[in-house]
Design goal:
With about 350 residues, the protein is α+β, with helices and mostly antiparallel strands. It is built from 10 helices and 13 strands. Strand 1 (about 45-50) and strand 2 form a beta hairpin.
């Protein structure tokens, strides 16, 4: 009953001992737990999920998934659920995406203390954006922050993508202030404050130490992205499907792995070939610490601000009565092989030996 194993997990199983020997000093508890989960995903013959078709009464068992968010075989339904929820929050305004990037000198910190560093990134950027908005005295922002840890070549490259609708809500006056669809904030000013505040936060953190040779200029990208849906679709592709899809691993030998990626500037497809162990570590270094929330909503986009969003939609002239609830599935669904209807999850089971 074991499921089909991804190429990455198959490599991981074959080279696990060598990986442990070469990278033992870098494999933290979270990475080791992810390795164990992935190697057992859909392979444990004794654990299964039970499904029933109410239309034709067909019963079926599927091997149990591990559910680890780093597993390339799991959580595809989580991606579509997140996109459905974000789509439900969309306002009929123009949107911006602001990207805050840490210089490469901070990669060592990201490897040694990922949770502390990533938490600071969320805290500093959210306070920074709120402060920039408060200067203009037009009300508060709503925004969604998403942590990415890699660049296109899959190297460690921590950055935050933050999607922000153009406009502010003034709670005291219950008014919506329309934003400029061409301009949010000055990117150079954001970058200057981002650098100063992040360095100060690291200096005051008991676990973290500033690296040497920190550049004077940091990069913040602030661009308009239209109505917002395309940005959430872009971000959703990277959220819950692993760092590298199996389809992009194009050649494997006993010594090397070749994968493809799209180059940022030219959008041309490129390939990268690495020794097997180096390739495995390249992907595993992006395993997130347990308990770290990599997607966070702020202001009127928070999960518990639904009533406030309805008020804003009314102010924007939207007929809220015609809005349908988001199509969110509670778990992965299966289609009945006999009649093509959606099957009902009946629970988890374990075979006795």
């Amino acid at each position: 009953m074991g499921g089909i194993m991804s190429q990455f997990i198959a490599l991981l199983g074959h080279y696990q001992a060598q990986l442990e020997q070469q990278y033992s000093g870098l494999l933290n508890q979270d990475i080791r737990r992810a390795i164990i989960d992935m190697l057992h995903c859909k392979q444990d013959e004794s654990r299964y999920s039970q499904w029933h078709c109410g239309h034709c009464l067909h019963d079926q068992q599927h091997p149990a998934s591990c559910g680890n968010r780093s597993c390339p075989q799991c959580l595809h339904q989580t991606t579509s659920n997140w996109l459905a929820k974000q789509t439900d929050k969309l306002l009929p305004v123009h949107y911006f995406m602001v990207t805050f990037t840490l210089p490469y000198q901070f990669r060592v910190l990201a490897q040694k203390h990922p949770k502390a560093l990533y938490q600071l990134m969320f805290k500093v950027t959210s306070n920074l954006l709120k402060d920039f908005a408060s200067r203009e005295d037009k009300g508060s922002l709503g925004f969604t922050s998403v942590l990415h840890t890699h660049n296109r070549k899959r190297e460690l490259h921590p950055h935050l993508h933050i999607v922000i609708p153009s406009g502010r809500y003034d709670a005291s006056k219950k008014q919506w202030h329309k934003g400029d669809k061409r301009y949010l904030f000055n990117a150079f000013s954001l970058a200057k404050v981002w650098r100063g505040r992040m360095m100060e936060a690291i200096n005051h953190h008991p676990q973290l130490t500033l690296p040497t040779n920190i550049p004077n200029k940091w990069v913040v990208d602030c661009r308009k992205v239209g109505v917002g849906l395309s940005s959430f679709q872009y971000l959703s592709r990277y959220l819950y499907r692993g760092v590298l899809p199996d389809k992009d691993i194009i050649h494997i030998t006993d010594e090397e792995v070749t994968f493809r990626y799209k180059e940022g500037g030219t959008h041309l497809m490129k390939t990268r070939t690495l020794p097997v162990l180096k390739f495995l570590w390249l992907i595993l270094q992006h395993v997130l610490p347990k308990g770290l929330q990599r997607v966070r909503d702020y202001g009127f986009l928070r999960g518990n601000a639904k009533r406030l969003r309805l008020q804003i939609l009314l102010l924007l002239g939207v007929n809220v009565a015609s809005k349908s609830p988001p199509n969110v599935m509670k778990r992965t669904s299966f289609i009945c092989p006999c009649c093509q209807h959606i099957m009902q999850f009946m629970g988890m089971g374990r075979l006795s030996h």
